[in-house]
Amino acid sequence: MDEERIQLTAEESGERIDALLARAFPALSRSLIQKCMEAGTVTLNGKPVKKNARGAAGDEVLFAFPETEPLPVLAQALPLDVVYEDGDLIVVNKARGMVVHPAPGHPDGTLVNALLWHCGDSLSGIGGVQRPGIVHRIDKDTSGLLVAAKNDFAHQELSAQLSDHSLFREYEAVACGSFRETSGSVDRPIGRHPVDRKRMAVTEKNGKRAVTHWELKAAYRGYALLTCRLETGRTHQIRVHMASIGHPLLGDGLYGAKCPDKGLEGQCLHARRLTLIHPRTGETMRFEAPRPAYFAGVLEKLGPEL
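The structure assignment produced for this chain is given below.
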């Protein structure tokens, strides 16, 4: 049974313990945390707490939760657009609408299921049973390039490149609104939304540094084609950052307009370019995925450039 200790700060004084734990462990639902509290596996200063318990500055919360055995992931013969492959890594062009790895609500039909069928046992185990080979992720409705590792050595090397930013990722996006400048950067911390657990938000509290560089490529009436380069890799980073400066991505119902725009449900975002250093040879490798049909169709609907 894993245990986590949290000492409450002055800012967290008076906050409900279940809310605090839900923010600290975003992978766990608040209802699951409350069940743990009912089972007596959450203590406040050594004593079990009720669901509505609140703490004070300096209090210590001990959260113990049982380990769960993940369900085995099945190999599935799904369409897979392989851009490059060797004994250490595989680069794929993920289709829009495909989830990267199994998760609640998406037990199969994911990129991982397809990779297991294509690669067999030759995927790294660092990501665990549910995420073999996965070095980084892109959202379900984001299309484009993603690299997976075929052994633990490659996984460690590629993960290090993510950390030191030598693994370069560039996206194309259609954003709403008109831009006065032709380029810019958003340097704002991103963390879990304090109320809606499905969303991320720009927040100082529990947020991690996030930097997105953008450049205007084409302007349309009420919309803009951008390239976005990630310096960091937070969940929903481009979507959150562009919405935070008043330019949500076209079709993004989570951070922008709730109704479909231009007939598009899901953000218009494509991982266009990927640059990495081969973990074994040291060679710099560059990959590019052309705009998919849905993206090109959106640009046609936007009309002539201004």
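Interim note for the steering committee: The first helix runs from residue 17 to 24. Residues 175 and 224 are 5 Å apart (CA to CA).
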